Amino acid sequence: MKYISHTLSALLLVMLAGCEKPIISDTDTEKTVEKKGNLTLTICEVEHTPFPELTRKSASEACNRLNFAVYDTAGSRLKLTNQKLGDADFGTATFQLPEGTYIIVALAHSSNGNPTMTNPEKIQFNNSQGYTDTFLYYKKVVVGTESQTLSLSLHRITALCRFVVNDAIPEGVAKLEFTYKGGSGSFDASTGYGCVNSTQVMKYDVQAGMKQTQYDLYTFLHSTEGSLHLKVTAYDASGNMLFEKSMGVDMYQNQITWLKGNLFSDIQSTPTESFSATVDIDTQWQGELYFTY
Questions:
Q1: Of 135, 156, 177, the domain-final residue
Q2: How many CA atoms lie within 13 A of 166 on its CB side?
Q3: 95 in helix, strand or coil?
Q4: Alpha carbon distance 234, 169 (integer Å)
Q5: What family does the entry list (predicted)?
Q6: Which residues span the domain enclosing 115?
Q7: Which of 13, 21, 142 lies closest to 72, judged by CA?
Q8: Do 273 and 173 belong together in one domain?
Q9: Can you list the positions of beta strands (E) in 51-197?
Q10: How does pLDDT run across 114-172, given as a tens digit for each residue?
Q11: What is the dihedral of CA 41, 45, 47, 49, to 10 degrees?
């Protein structure tokens, strides 16, 4: 079955509230560019999990942005390189460093911008850029007198709620808003877990008659598993709320929770309705969760 996929870059507006403050991301111009150095980082593979099995992909196949950062052992950032797909050096970064011990962090993602990486214990994506599949490398390395090259293998740190609407968007509905709590918009690179309590809001423009629409909601969990409180709200073109539905969603790091159903089949005058769901677990992909609402 084909889904009409709404990409984060085109239709998504993400707003974070809760404990997070407004941030300014590290721009593409804020980066260290060194052609020669004594430490070279090369991404050799990115954990990529298309259905139905776990595979390994090159960086260019899994993402369109890479970030390399070097910190001292106290967590102060010393070096930063941001790369976009199409850059000549995409996937490789070189740094000149004095002898010593350093923390290396590398990220792969497809956001519309770069996260703020000032503090490795709180790497924070800009609220307006959206959230995508995110992969991480974190390690302490010792730099000596001899040059060295590290081959990096990145692993996924996100959890994904994939919300599928089987029925057609009815007349009068112009926007769907997904609000969910329980995850995080920032993460600690040393653990790969979320480090703040966030309220994430994603808004999608829709058109009447659209069927089999799909909405991907990414988050960083605070541990290997957690739960989200998800609320779906429909609005008309003037911003008037037509109805909303709520449910709890079980989530696991590096796993997908699928929510499928007919969202508009039981629109009533009462604005708030709760979901009841059944779950089926497929362990082939580290435990996909299938819900029907």
A1: 156
A2: 10
A3: strand
A4: 10
A5: Belongs to the bacteroidetes fimbrillin superfamily. FimB/Mfa2 family.
A6: 24-156
A7: 142
A8: yes
A9: 55-57, 65-72, 77-84, 92-95, 100-109, 123-124, 135-143, 148-156, 159-165, 175-181, 186-188, 193-194
A10: 999 999 999 998 767 888 899 999 999 999 999 999 999 999 999 999 999 999 999 99
A11: 150
